[in-house]
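Forgive a beginner's question, but might I ask you for the amino acids of a protein and the tokens describing how it folds?
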Amino acid sequence: MDPLDAAMKKCGADAFVHYAGGEDADMRYLSRFVMHDPFVFFKKHREPGTIIVPQMEAERASRESIAAVITRTQAGLPDISKKEKDPWRAAAQMIAGQTGKTLLVSPTLPAALLRALEESTRVVVDEGTIELVRAKKTPEEIRLIQTVQKKTERAMELGISLIRNATVKKGVLYHDGAPLTSELVRTAVHKQLMDDGCRAVETIISCGEDTAFPHIIGSGPLRPHEPIVIDMFPRDETTGYYADMTRTVSKGKPGQKITDMYEAVKEAQQIGISHIKAGVSGAEAHTAVVEYFKSRGYESDTRGFIHNLGHGVGLQVHELPTLGAAGKVLEAGFVVTVEPGLYYPGVGGIRLEDMGVVRTQKFEDFTEFEENLIV
């Protein structure tokens, strides 16, 4: 049975309702339609989904969406709005007129719309059915994510080549006679990704002691003999699917502490990968890495390994499943990252991140890009 149908049957709902813009991952998954303004998706039991859109979007929606399409006029909104001036109540009446008296609604439904629906219908808040369904990727979704990954690797090669080919002058990397900065590398990789039909924001290009803080995006001149973390997570503009990968490099040999951390992280990544397969929990894979770091003398608390081993990737860069202490059993078809890291303020940080799909007997790594500290 369709998971939404099963969820509706369980609570006795006549229909499932979601309300969001097309940038919302659940809405994009349900409708495959992208529109800036929020719109309604509903699905009755054992029926296909339907979206309600403005008249000006109807033709485009009919061409692009996998759902049936009706306009707000067809759904009666103009007539409702003549009597009901509150827009949320008007929308709720329109939805109720198309659906039924008992509704299963998305957990992200706006509070104002939820309250308005409760005035005339019995409302049950769903526990995240679509998020769970999205976690398990179809072969076509896997192919789309692999395509984004290849584009990401091309951008990574560009970024690292700028560092590799830089000259050193007064303790700073130089490119074309000017300091090579985080901003310059970020702009270069973003342009490359844009040319490849992807959009990237907040790409991390951090250097030195800043690398001890995982999500500092970095700024200013890059320096030799220090770790440089490059973490990029672009989205394909056409399909909406993400990739995610990280490499840590150094122009010239860094200090021994950084070198030792790098080797430990590299081995930890392989340990994590070796534990990932269908039937194994995300917690088990994470714990294996924690125990390995402990054997090497590295903490997994406020310093050292301070985040989860990985996460799901799809229409969101961070989605289910979780590879962490709370991680549940993995299923074949989950696309996940494996990204151990070590972070020590005053020293620096190392992170290596690959992405791939959980299979019945193993983890199939999509990431083919090499891992070398010194460039």
User: Anything to note?
Assistant: The mean pLDDT is 97. DSSP finds eleven helices and 21 strands in the chain. The radius of gyration is 24 Å.
